[in-house]
Structure formats: C-alpha cells, structure tokens
Design a protein that fits this description.
single chain; 182 residues; mainly alpha; 9 helices; Sel1 repeat family protein; signal; TPR-like_helical_dom_sf
Length: 182
C-alpha cells in the first residue's frame, strides 16, 4: 500500500504538467476559433448587423486582465452594447454575465483559474438590469441568473437595479460607463 501511495505522489507532478499542457493546447484552439469567428463577422458587425456584433463581442470576451492581448473585455463590451442597443437579447444576457463577474465561458480551464486568482470587475445593479432586459427579450436563463443575483444585492443596490431595469434610470453599457469610471 505504501508503494502505491509513493507512486501516486511521484506521478502527481507529471499529471499536473500534462493537465497544464492539455489546458494550453485547448486554450490555443479556443483562440484560433475565436480569431476565425472575429474575421468572418467583423465586416458585418461594422455594417451594423446585431448578430455579427454579438459574435464579435463574444469572440473577444473576455480578458483576465481586462484589456490586454487578443481577448479584450472593454472592446468586447463595446460590440455587445451595439448589439444590445438593437434589442438583441443574447448580447444583453452576455452583458449581464460580464458585469456580474462571469467573464469566462466554456471549457477554458486555464482562464477560469486565472480569473479566480485575479478576480474581475463587477457592477451588480447594472448586471441585474441587463439580465432583466435579456429576459424580456426571450432569454429565460437570464431571468434565473437575475433572480440569483438579486439575493446578493443590498437594499440600495436593489433600488438602483430596479430603476435601471424598469427604465426609470438610464442603463449604462460601455466598460468606461460601468466599470472604469465606477
């Protein structure tokens, strides 16, 4: 039994190294896919197509360091805002998730670990309002996320979130409006 335990401990560094290699290879594939999505949608996005703007925003989302390298959260949000401004509900949903701090989607193990270590910028009242807007546009999952988020809001945050969600207060969108100046 002790020999099996020793073999297990000695194999641990190899397993961690292999996991890191697999994670790096997977992330490399994700970047290649996202670059292809960006390239095939950027012209339509610039021409004002909401779905293409969403795809560009999704492809650029999201940087762990919020703005350096291929993934660029502020630029991603800019494209998502353009799509959400045309009532494209998936973009509003994604904005809600980003402003709630959930900036890494899919199987991106290395980026999830990095995000947990670095943290992410949030604005929960704005996130709630964008999630409610997405729900109104047919994104039912956004409503479930908004309900969960509501429980974490303070009384003053709930007032602010509700005012934005109901249109009594303007709903900011771009990174600079929501995070950088907040």
């Amino acid at each position: 039994m002790r020999r099996v335990y020793q073999l297990g401990l000695s194999a641990l560094p190899l397993l961690l190294l292999a996991g890191g290699c697999v994670g790096a290879a997977t992330e490399g594939a994700n970047i290649a896919k996202d670059k292809a999505v960006l390239a095939s949608n950027i012209d339509d996005a610039r021409a004002g197509d909401a779905e293409a703007q969403y795809k560009v925003g999704d492809a650029l989302c999201c940087s762990v360091n919020e703005g350096h390298g291929f993934y660029d959260t502020p630029e991603s949000v800019g494209w998502l805002c353009k799509a959400a401004g045309q009532d494209y509900a998936p973009a509003a949903h994604m904005l809600g998730e980003i402003y709630a701090g959930d900036v890494v989607s899919g199987v991106r193990v290395l980026r999830r670990v990095a995000q947990r270590l670095a943290g992410s910028s949030t604005n929960l009242p704005v996130a709630y309002a964008w999630l409610r807007r997405a729900e109104a546009g047919g994104e039912t999952e956004a409503g479930e996320t908004a309900d969960q988020l509501w429980t974490n809001l303070s009384r003053s945050q709930r007032y602010e979130a509700e005012a934005m969600a109901e249109g009594h207060q303007s709903l900011p969108c771009t990174w600079d409006e929501v995070i950088a100046s907040g």
